[in-house]
Write a sequence for this structure.
């Protein structure tokens, strides 16, 4: 199975990584978390917005519960439960600060996409953790061939950014623009390291994959910071 190509995955350093965009952010986040935990790393998962509370026992309400999961070789998910929705929001600051120094890797879902493969952030998004050193932008390749109205969360600002109509069919250039723009996936990234995950690449022809890679590289993205990820990738 495909392996996560990013150098930060195996460099042994402490990282705080925020995931933005659409098209499988949560899946990528948990795949990375599980892979790091399997390597003996103490992994902390959270959101700065909203995620569903996991049903697999990885949610931890306090420091001892987190440490217990780490001792079992598992990742730990923290947050403030919203019992009416079954979701988690940002964890209490004191809990995060207590665990921040103990964790080897912190993964944070920093915005939502309501299951759309791509998006343009709202004025209040993304909520990137101040201490994060890496931003990981995710987009689903199943956006290609569909209209902005169908496949993009907040299609109106996307249409304004791309100077097109809501009925415009998303092609490689449009998707690359959404990933490269500071009004798109690069919003609030600043000086942090920026990586891109192109999800569901098994849905594309090889020529389409290479065109996406070419567009991103020609715009200055290091090829080593692009992951052409297939749906069947069970490893990170």
């Amino acid at each position: 199975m495909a392996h996560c190509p990013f150098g930060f995955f195996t460099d042994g350093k402490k990282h705080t990584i925020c995931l933005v965009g659409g098209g499988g952010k949560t899946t990528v986040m948990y795949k990375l978390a599980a892979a790091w935990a399997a390597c003996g790393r103490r992994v902390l998962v959270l959101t700065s917005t909203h995620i569903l509370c996991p049903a697999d026992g990885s949610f931890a309400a306090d420091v001892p519960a987190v440490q217990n999961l780490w001792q079992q070789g598992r990742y730990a998910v923290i947050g403030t439960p919203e019992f009416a929705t079954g979701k988690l929001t940002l964890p209490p600051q004191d809990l995060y600060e207590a665990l921040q120094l103990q964790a080897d890797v912190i993964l944070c879902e920093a915005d939502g996409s309501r299951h759309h493969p791509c998006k343009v952030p709202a004025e209040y998004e993304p909520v990137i953790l101040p201490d994060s050193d890496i931003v990981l932008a995710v987009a689903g390749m199943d956006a290609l061939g569909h209209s902005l109205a169908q496949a993009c969360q907040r299609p109106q600002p996307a249409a304004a950014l791309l100077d097109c109509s809501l009925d415009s069919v998303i092609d490689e250039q449009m998707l690359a623009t959404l990933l490269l723009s500071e009004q798109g996936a690069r919003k609030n990234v600043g000086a942090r390291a920026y990586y891109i995950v192109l999800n569901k690449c098994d849905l594309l022809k090889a020529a389409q994959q290479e065109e996406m890679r070419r567009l991103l590289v020609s715009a200055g993205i290091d090829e080593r910071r692009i992951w052409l990820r297939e749906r069947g990738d069970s490893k990170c």
Remarks:
- Residues 25-38 form the longest helix (14 residues).
- Residues 21 and 193 are 16 Å apart (CA to CA).
- The chain has seven helices and twelve strands.
- The mean pLDDT is 93.
